[in-house]
Design brief:
It is built from 4 helices and 15 strands. It has 216 residues and is an alpha/beta fold. It has 2 domains: 118 residues, UDP N-Acetylglucosamine Acyltransferase, domain 1 (3 Solenoid); 41 residues, no CATH class. The strands form 3 sheets. A 7-stranded mixed sheet has the order 1-3-6-9-12-14-15, with no helix packed on it. Strands 2-5-8-11 form a 4-stranded parallel sheet, with no helix packed on it. It has a 4-stranded parallel sheet with strand order 4-7-10-13, with no helix packed on it.
Length: 216
């Protein structure tokens, strides 16, 4: 393998000058409740460094987090809807009078445990999310999953699944169960970058036997 002398900097905002739409988003988010792993990118010609605008309805009193792992590829137009978008549903109306302002601010506001909160939203490692996907509060997307364009993800997606549609549903597994267990144990995304570079062929090839030859 050719020696790597020009390695992309995981702390760069735009790692490839030839593709200015591609941004390593951990280096641009400011909200401490958005946690993103190294080498995860958002690709958007309209401003990839504005990823944080695509994470909506954060409220401090709820405290939920968006957690995205390493080496994820996120396409343009993806929206993460957080728990602050939820309304109380056990009353006659779901309308939030208390947020409108003026004298309506004295209306009864729900306390945290009265809202249908679903916890943190978690995207695993090596996940590919297609264009214009909407991910709802509290969803967990497993390592290695693929989410198809225009999907609305309202339920958890298992690791190494291909899921599409509205509502998003699993249409197939990427690999058989035994190989999925092997990959989840391998956790290649946690390797040193030098080991990842040395195994580009095994990681990217359709010949799955190559990855089994690597010493864990």
């Amino acid at each position: 393998m050719k020696k790597i002398t020009n390695r992309p900097d995981p702390n760069a905002v735009f790692p490839n000058p030839k593709i200015p739409s591609l941004c390593f988003i951990k280096n641009v988010v400011k909200n401490p409740r958005i946690i993103i792993g190294d080498y995860t990118y958002y690709d958007d010609v309209d401003g990839a460094d504005q990823f944080e605008k695509h994470v909506t309805h954060f409220y401090d009193f709820i405290g939920d987090r968006l957690i995205i792992g390493k080496f994820c590829a996120i396409a343009k137009g993806v929206e993460f809807v957080m728990n602050g978008a939820n309304h109380r549903m056990d009353g006659v109306t779901t309308y939030p009078f208390y947020v409108i302002g003026g004298d309506w601010g004295s209306a009864i506001a729900p306390v945290k445990n009265e809202l249908p909160l679903k916890g943190d939203t978690v995207v695993g490692n090596d996940v590919w999310i297609g264009q214009n996907v909407t991910i709802m509060p509290g969803v967990h997307i497993g390592d290695g999953a693929i989410i198809g364009t225009n999907s609305v993800v309202a339920k958890d997606i298992p690791p190494y699944s291909v899921a599409v549609g509205n509502p998003c549903r699993v249409v197939r597994k990427r690999f058989d169960d035994e190989f999925i267990v092997y990959l989840l144990d391998l956790k290649w995304w946690d390797w040193d970058i030098e080991k990842i570079e040395a195994n580009f062929k095994a990681l990217s090839s359709g010949d799955l036997s190559l990855i089994r030859k690597i010493d864990k």
